[in-house]
Specification:
Oligomer: single chain
Largest sheet: 13 strands, mixed
Radius of gyration: 33 Å
Mean pLDDT: 79
Strand content: 35-45%
Distance between the termini: 105 Å
Helix content: 10-25%
Shape: elongated
Length: 621
């Protein structure tokens, strides 16, 4: 708004004052002052009106979209320069990706898209008709099509990402949005491009720096299952302008930062105040989330007959991704969410190497991201060599709880699977148990992993076992001999002394010679940790910390008397009367009955991974 009217009033006032001095001049000036105040009030009113009306384009309703209409899409092909691409409407596909979820099918025009087709990273590129925002390019038609055919998610559906909040929320992007449940679980972007699917989400580039090809080979299927295409990328220095986003710019979603970085990225559809809409389809489909947003920069677009993609770098953190839903993702600009610190120390005879990472906290992603970071750090050290045995000592710090201990030995059992992969998947499994607990949402504060390399493949299997005598009396000590076959070298015999408890009744007992895994799985069953049979997460952690270690050889004496497992406690040799009481109760408090009791357990430190089991019978006279 130009202030020309106020300037002319000032000039007229000077002339009026020269002709009519005194109170007339004062009256005129008071009138002019009121006029100025009214004008300023009008300006403030306009500036206080919703940014949707002030800065954003009008909405082009889906009902007005007709075949043959001309429009344009805005995206970046290189150098952070937003370019216009012409397009033509082919038609509207009703219920294309779900009930009441329509798609505008368009043909992209121009020499550039004829070379690239629909590009990984274009998801979210805003589409306009008559200068009005119609939606975001989000899907592609086929994989090897000769034409650049894409699917546009209507902007009305994208705005419904806010429906997970109350309609009165002051943070609602669209004030007229009608509250309804979001269909986050029915995400159509969780699958990659399949030969059986014609209209599929555009792949989201997976931007990695410091990721070795071996790591991508082991964990690539995890990311591709979410519709992500791994590509070369990098990191960019932070800039004060990183948060100044416009529709058509690129934005990144950081999963891992530090000595290894893993991010994904797509195009911004709408910027309003401190909020953005992007992608036009889910990133993962998790619903409400907290992931760091970063500025993404396009270095170039790589044209490919199979799958063109944007080569991207990510810059500074500029905000938080807050919603990841069926038709769009939404974020707020500002500070990013906290991430989990992960410290990895690799100790080898040659040197000690330290790595530091930060990982997002997500029950679905964190276990695999931690495993990938640990695996990548180990195999990337020049001091690590294939065939080494790895000793892990680590902790998972969970807020308000005892630390989860990670202590075990890992040796490759064959020539194709390296020991770091066994270690990484074990860490992944431990994280999965913590996050999948039925008691509370855990808040992981820190992860510390210390890995020491030991020479050679320290691995042996239990071949057979025998007793120096099989008929004993209570209180006797018998010697168990176990034949072990190492990975290489001659077999050897390990003795385990076993003392029969003095109170043992006459009869037959079973003696189980085994590795730790067999006992953890069968004797001290951890089924209660996933079935809600413990008082809470603390008891579950205590139970996990009591698990046996795989570098020990175990001898477990079992007797045919019942054991009741109540929460995290074992009650061996329980009498029949107590069992009847439990059976008569409506709610036995998560008690479970085992038909054997542990009479004793002995173990020997072997300094190598033990595998296998054998059964012996002892007769007590």
């Amino acid at each position: 708004m130009r202030f020309g009217s106020f300037d002319s009033a000032a000039i007229a006032g000077s002339e009026f004052a020269s002709r009519y001095p005194g109170r007339y001049y004062g009256s005129f000036m008071r009138f002019a002052s009121k006029l100025c105040l009214c004008g300023l009030a009008l300006i403030l009113l306009l500036s206080a009106s919703p940014l949707w009306a002030a800065n954003d384009p009008a909405i082009f309703p889906l009902s007005d979209v007709k075949p043959g209409m001309k429009g344009e899409m805005y995206t970046i092909f290189s150098g952070d320069r937003i370019e216009k691409t012409d397009l033509e409407v082919i038609g509207v596909l009703h219920n294309a990706v779900g009930p009441k979820l329509d798609v505008i099918l368009v043909r992209l025009l121009g020499d550039q898209v004829q070379q690239t087709g629909v590009v990984a990273g274009m998801s979210g590129s805003p589409v306009y008709f008559d200068g009005k925002l119609a939606g975001a390019l989000a899907l592609k038609l086929g994989t090897f099509t000769k034409e650049a055919i894409g699917g546009v998610t209507p902007i009305q559906d994208m705005l419904e990402v806010e429906q997970s909040r109350p309609a009165t929320s002051p943070e609602a992007i669209h004030p007229s949005a009608v509250s309804a449940p979001a269909a986050a679980a029915q995400t159509f972007a969780v699958t990659g491009a399949s030969s059986k699917q014609l209209l599929v989400p555009i792949e989201t580039p997976l931007i990695t720096t410091g990721l070795y090809p071996e790591t991508l080979e082991k964990f690539g299927k995890f990311f591709s299952s979410w519709g992500m295409a791994a590509m070369a990328g990098g990191t960019a220095a932070p800039s004060p302008d990183d948060a100044k986003l416009k529709p058509g710019d690129m934005v990144g979603f950081d999963l891992v930062r530090g000595d290894l970085s893993i991010s994904s990225g797509c195009t911004v559809t709408l910027v309003q105040e401190n909020r953005i809409l992007a992608c036009g389809h889910p990133l993962f489909g998790f619903g409400k989330v907290e992931m760091p947003l970063s500025r993404a920069h396009v270095m170039m677009t790589l044209a490919s007959a199979a799958a063109s993609t944007k080569i991207i770098t990510t810059g500074a953190t500029i905000g938080t991704l807050t919603q990841d839903r069926q038709t769009a993702v939404m974020g707020t600009l500002g500070a990013g969410p906290p991430m989990i610190p992960l410290d990895l120390t690799l100790d080898t005879p040659a040197a000690e190497k330290k790595y530091h990472f930060e990982v997002i906290e997500s029950p679905q992603l964190t276990p695999t991201l931690v495993a990938a970071a640990a695996y990548n750090g180990i195999i990337g050290s020049p001091a690590y060599g294939e065939g080494s045995t790895l000793q892990l000592n680590g902790t998972i710090q969970v807020k308000g709880h005892t630390p989860v201990r990670l202590d075990d030995l890992f040796a490759p059992a064959d020539q194709t699977t390296p020991a770091p992969f066994f270690l990484a998947t074990q860490v992944q499994a431990d994280f999965g148990r913590i996050y999948s607990n039925p008691y509370e949402s855990p808040q992981v504060e820190r992860i510390e992993l210390a890995v020491k390399t030991l020479p050679e493949r320290r691995w042996a299997t239990i071949d057979s076992a025998w007793l120096d005598r099989s008929i004993v009396s209570p209180g006797d000590t018998v010697k168990v001999k176990v034949l072990l076959r190492p990975y290489r070298g001659p077999a050897f015999v390990q003795d385990i002394p076993v003392t029969i408890p003095p109170q043992t009744a006459s009869g037959k007992l079973e003696l189980v010679i085994s590795d730790a895994e067999f006992l953890n799985r069968n004797v001290q069953s951890l089924a209660a940790t996933t079935q809600g049979q413990l008082p809470g997460l603390e008891e579950m952690i205590q139970l996990i910390n009591r698990e046996r270690h795989n570098d020990r050889l175990y001898a477990t004496l079992l007797q045919p008397t019942p054991t009741v497992l109540v929460e995290d406690k074992e009650m061996p040799n329980i009498p029949a009367s107590a069992i009847n009481v439990l059976n008569q109760r409506q709610n036995p408090g998560g008690a479970r009955l085992l038909w054997q009791s542990t009479a004793g357990e002995w173990s020997v430190q072997m300094h190598q991974v033990i595998a296998g089991q054998d059964m012996l019978t002892i007769t007590v006279k």
